[in-house]
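INFO  loader      accepted 1 record
INFO  loader      residues=190
INFO  predictor   begin
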Amino acid sequence: MVVLNKIYTRTGDKGDTALGNGDRVAKHSLRVTAYGTTDELNSHLGVARLHAEGDFNAQLSMIQNDLFDLGADLCRPDMEKDAESEYPPLRATMAQVERLEAEIDAMNKDIAPLRSFILPGGSALAAHLHICRTVSRRAERCAVELAEIESVNPAVIKYLNRLSDWFFVAARAANDNGETDVLWVPGANR
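INFO  predictor   done
INFO  writer      dumping tokens
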């Protein structure tokens, strides 16, 4: 259980922060950038949810919770020590990735195949989901870059990769299953 009764601690006033294992690192470290970008994505998703209803809103709520799981995973670098830890840290799982895949398939079955690239937009929900898609891609790039030099749970990278696909298909679903997508017209303004 998390208890936050004092919000400021002053411990990061010199530009460093604590990871989940207690290590202190620069606030601009790749690890902090990766989980910070995941947090940013979660905030954008909160705005998108203002335009969602019913089952769709419930799926977005699950994704928001997953993103906190990913942030918790990313802020705890020492995966090799998980087995010996008294309190094993929270890690993203392949089951979360597989759930996204099933949801993508379910949404996509009613959407006509693309015959053109689409521009971000259409409905308010679709526009916000496209922002989520691009921030998800950036979070994925941060996690991939981090994985080149430090230990990163492969399920985190797979989740972020699949999540950007989820947001793309969801944006099309939010645009009347692609009927009101805004199509790119190459060279239209030459």
